[in-house]
Amino acid sequence: MNTFFLSVALGLCLLMLFSLYRTLFGPTVLDRLIGVNAIGSKTVVILLLIGFLYERIDMFVDIALAYAFLNFIAVLAASRYFHKRKGLYEESFMD
């Protein structure tokens, strides 16, 4: 069972590379925010899988919940900031 959890965690790490690409090279700020949110969501699942691997799921659930809450608040604050700045849907100037 540990090999299953480990392979799922490694698969999620590989999938996070696509979100990292969208975060770094996204054409708009909204694409970058969605990429960051996807990375944070996958990190929560990886934390839970690590809890299953070490057989300490009770501790890792608390860590995962705290990280999910911080991820949600950070993305919400960033999207509100860019919405007030009217830069949420504009093209980025990094290209």
Number of strands: 0
Strand content: under 5%
Taken together, the total number of domains comes to 1
pLDDT under 50 segments (min length 5)? none
| Radius of gyration using CA atoms only | 16 Å
What overall geometry do the principal axes of the alpha carbons give?
A: elongated
Percentage of residues in helical conformation: over 70%
Number of discrete helical segments = 3
Tell me the structural class.
mainly alpha
Order of helices and strands: HHH
Compute the average pLDDT: 88
N/C terminus separation: 45 Å
Largest sheet: none
Structural account:
- With 95 residues, the chain is an all-alpha fold.
- It has one domain (2-84).
- The chain has helices spanning 2-25, 29-53, 57-84.
- Helix 1 packs antiparallel against helix 2 (29-53) and helix 2 (29-53) runs antiparallel to helix 3.
- It is elongated.
- The mean pLDDT is 88.
Topology at a glance:
Layout: H1 2-25, H2 29-53, H3 57-84
Helix pairs in contact: 1-2, 2-3
Quick tags:
single chain; 95 residues; mainly alpha; 3 helices
